[in-house]
Amino acid sequence: MDLDAYLARIGLAAAPAADLDGLAAVQRAHRFAIPFENLDIPLGRGIAIDPDTVFDKLVTRRRGGYCFEQNRLFGDALGALGFTRRPLLARVWLGASEVPARTHTFDLVTLDGREWIADAGFGGSFTPPMPLEEGAELATADGARHRLRRDPAHGWMLERHGHSALADGRGADDDGWLPQYSFTPDPVFDIDLALSNHWTSSAPGTRFTTLHIVSLALPDGLVALTGRRFTRHLTTGSEARDIDRAADYRAVLAETFGIALSEAEVAALGLFD
Fold first, then answer.
1. pLDDT in tens, 237-256
2. How far apart are CA 26 and CA 128, in angstroms?
3. Crossing angle of helices 67-81/20-33, nearest 10°?
4. Is residue 165 scored above 80 in pLDDT?
5. Whether the predicted pLDDT of 166 surpasses 80
6. How far apart are alpha carbons 147 and 160 in whole angstroms?
7. Alpha-carbon distance 30 to 155, whole Å?
8. Do the beta carbons of residue 249 and residue 259 sit within 8 Å?
9. Is there a contact between 58 and 31 (Cβ–Cβ < 8 Å)?
10. For the packed helices 67-81 and 190-202, what is the interaxial angle rounded to 10 degrees?
11. N or C of the chain: less Cβ packing under 10 Å?
12. 23, 12 in Cβ contact below 8 A?
């Protein structure tokens, strides 16, 4: 990959060392620079996750993407930087009423014999790298807390505690620790990612085939568009409003998320008369 172009895209002036500080720096910069979005699905384009297509979309054309795109790019970058990493698949439990499918991917990174989970592609607030250890817990500047525990049925469970707006609106506020996603360390191959990505991007009635989602993690919160609803949740307060005009929606995409869509593309989303 063109590592220099990737580092420029996420705002890092130089390649960090392949250590824990470097991992945290890349993940943090990636999450604050590249928006999470699924707009190619309602535009009828589908989601391709081969390295060249993902790089062109997220870096060259400065679009965003969802987890299978984000963590493909992030994982490729980690490999180019000298990290030992491999993908995992997870079941997202936020808002689930039954056992969910494996619709999320992230990376397992090994540093000096210790394993860490690193996720640059979850459509909520920033979660830092976490050691894959029972009871590991971290807090972030947005007021959320994150912890890992073993789950007897599903291997590992990442839990979060914080305002529901930081988890893209799924879950209840002040409801204690909520399961975010579960996973096992079993090997994941390209065909597994391709299958999960295909289902996630095409199955009728799912979150990504029924909603128009855009979000960007901030150092102290999250800004998001779900359909025509704009929300911003910070430690200092929250705001929410509906966008009534296609021109305003297009402007918010460009000014808040750095996503440039044409008038025709915004019209094709079907959000406005």
1. 999 999 999 999 999 999 99
2. 10
3. 140
4. no
5. no
6. 7
7. 27
8. no
9. no
10. 150
11. C
12. no
- Residue 152 CA to residue 240 CA, distance in Å, equals 39
Strand partners, 158: 148, 181
C-alpha distances in Å from residue 265, one per residue of 39, 194, 246: 10, 26, 10
Furthest-apart CA pair in the chain: how many Å?
56
No. of helices (H) and no. of strands (E), the chain? 8, 13
In the annotation, is 30 catalytic?
A: no
pLDDT tens string 200-225: 999 999 999 999 999 999 999 999 99
Domain ranges of the chain: 3-268
Q: What is the CA radius of gyration of the chain?
A: 18
Rounded Cα distance between 101 and 142, Å, is 29
Q: Which helix (H) or strand (E) holds 50?
A: none
The two tokens of residue 72 are 């493909």
Distance CA 13, CA 9 (A): 10
Nearest to 124 by CA among 40, 71, 67: 67
The catalytic residue among 40, 107, 119, 142 is: 119
> Do the beta carbons of residue 131 and residue 112 sit within 8 Å?
no
Distances (CA, A) of 190 to 40, 69, 89: 21, 13, 11
Task: Give me the phi and psi of 136, to 5 degrees please.
Answer: -60, 135
The three-state secondary structure class of 179 is strand
Contacts (Cβ under 8 Å, ≥6 apart) of 273:
none
Distance between CA atoms of residues 141 and 32, nearest Å:
13
CATH architecture entry for 3-268: 2-Layer Sandwich (3.30)
Catalytic position from the list 30, 67, 163, 233: 67
Q: Which of 30, 104, 163, 212 is catalytic?
A: 104
- Global pTM reads 0.96
Can 2 be counted among the known catalytic residues? no
119: annotated active-site residue: yes
